[in-house]
Amino acid sequence: MKQINDRRNDMRQYLQKEMEKSFRRVCDEFQSEIERDGGKIWNEIKEILDEVSEKIVMGQREGKKGKIKYLSFNFLQLSSYTNKLQWYITAFDENFYIDEQDVGIYYSPIYLNEKYLHELEYMNKILRQKYIRIQNYEWDIIKRVYAVYYDSIMQVLLENLLEMMREYLATSDICISNKVLIIYGQYMDEAKILYEVG
Fold this sequence. Notes:
Layout lengths: L7 H54 L6 E9 L9 E8 L11 E3 L2 H19 L7 H25 L1 H10 L4 E9 L7 E6 L1
Parallel strand pairs: 1-4
Antiparallel strand pairs: 1-2, 2-3, 4-5
Helix pairs in contact: 1-2, 1-3, 2-3
């Protein structure tokens, strides 16, 4: 039986420099956008926080949610397969794992997705210059690897918005713990504490 040639690693290595170059370009563009229109980006994130807050307040009034101790932002890696990068924004109370009510919202930032899809289209053209008949499962790996760069962009963005998020929590109707942690990533995996409020 003839062995099927697995080209995925070769493809990834072939595009590695292009991915890094694309990432630097997107970072520069994004930095300019933040300086020019950072309020618009914050407003988009604030809208998501408003939705999460509404769920939290409702849960607290019903006695299903305690004082909030963790605000979590988690990138959904498998979302790269859908061509729509998504993050899950949620909050946990002091009970954490025995928290009775999920208050999470899926967040797909327009400003990042447009850039992601545009750069993927460019890299697909480059890849087709060397490889013919690229299979979906091969291209899926490229999308997933490249999506990790956007995960890091979002983390840096949130780090730049921490003071606004602190003020948001302090002035919202949410009943919060004496110490609130804003975390990025899966809590039991590779979560990073971005900020400690209180």
